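Quick entry between incubations.
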Amino acid sequence: MKKTVPEAKLLVVDDEPNIRELLSTSLRVAGFDVVAAANGRDALAAAETHNPDLAVLDVMLPDMDGFTVTRRLRAAGRHFPVVFLTARDDTEDKVTGLTVGGDDYVTKPFSLDEVVARIRAVLRRTHPLEDDDAVIRVDDLELDDDAHEVRRGGETIDLSPTEFKLLRYLMMNPNRVLSKAQILDHVWEYDFNGDASIVESYISYLRRKIDRSSDAVALIQTKRGVGYLLRSADKR
Amino acid sequence: MKKTVPEAKLLVVDDEPNIRELLSTSLRVAGFDVVAAANGRDALAAAETHNPDLAVLDVMLPDMDGFTVTRRLRAAGRHFPVVFLTARDDTEDKVTGLTVGGDDYVTKPFSLDEVVARIRAVLRRTHPLEDDDAVIRVDDLELDDDAHEVRRGGETIDLSPTEFKLLRYLMMNPNRVLSKAQILDHVWEYDFNGDASIVESYISYLRRKIDRSSDAVALIQTKRGVGYLLRSADKR
DNA sequence: GCGATCCCTCAGCAACGGCTCAGCCAATTC
DNA sequence: GAATTGGCTGAGCCGTTGCTGAGGGATCGC
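Done. Structure below.
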């Protein structure tokens, strides 16, 4: 898995232990330095102590809501960006205005890969110094996370949101077999409870769009009984 | 047998004494430092005392399930990865979340060689410092565990899952005779109860694919009445 | 509010892989 | 050199896996 350079420090705030752990662990593996808090008070304290580069903040916390936390942070002179976690059915107006600063939001239940991508995007915008590019390349395949666009050999390819996420996950892990369970865990929302065969369907869609259009080599390979693999000619 | 460098400490947790012993012994032979526990409570205590690098954890334990154990561990600030053991048919592909973070899972009944390989893979991912490569080499034969791919003299060779596991076992033990019983014990699932002649079949398949395609030296040799041996020219 | 898109499920089909068996060949023993 | 044992391999059966097209239901955008 591609690591973030340089290591950024994140503050994760959510009162549900499961979500908090899920996020913390995934973000650590993604290369971030993670500090976690379970409520607004602890979050404010942790922000003082650790001075993170970004916070992932649930809007619904037991003691105060995420907006209040943000306001208090800003008042204390902390201007790092925030990625809010909101329930899907939150009213529109509650969510609007969230993205004004460098901020962004992700709705629960989210896909792990998606959260990581969003955090990277926000960091990229606020710390443009890094040579961390928004474009992932594997052979003649390009995926531009900012423009949400995919090209193969210069030719733009139209993907649905899920197809895009799946391809991004594959491209982040070239030349490595990914099992259907693994793909499900990273690409689909964490509460999805259909079965893994949906991955087959989406692999099929992707192939049709990126491996069939050009008469180039097939990039997506099936490892029967094991998983799928995105082939890259140049060895890393 | 190739040793793990440096020696990693593992915590093995399973309530069935047979499985626990089987795993502990094999992992010790594979070069790991092993501590075992029979239930969640003991596992938590052992984690405190021994601070392992990884845990092998049955999801079905008498006192609490594997997820609870994991959550409690993480809450206590222990962030080592976990390889879960799950039953094959308890709605297998409905169970998700086992592969997030650096974690992975193996279904029961498993093959010993497979478990060891998975553990190594997880450790490799979480401790990338080690120069422990995912590629095993014997002469001009290469086996890439991450890509699940085999090459001889640069030429990619397609193997079925069982063929792959068999070859990996042979390649992990070059220049050493392995009896059919030994191979059966390591490569096949522990509840397999056909007879050892199946090994002959698979050796035959492997020869056809790796020793016949090129006109190079035959790597797989038969020691009549004893077993098989994968021969390597360069002694290391 | 309507159409288009997208997500997901399902079922049919084809290909593959796991395993067994039988017949043959090779090595070994007497 | 005959008999015996051990190993090799082709054939075949059968369950499993993966691919794909079709369709239903939900959602999004206009």
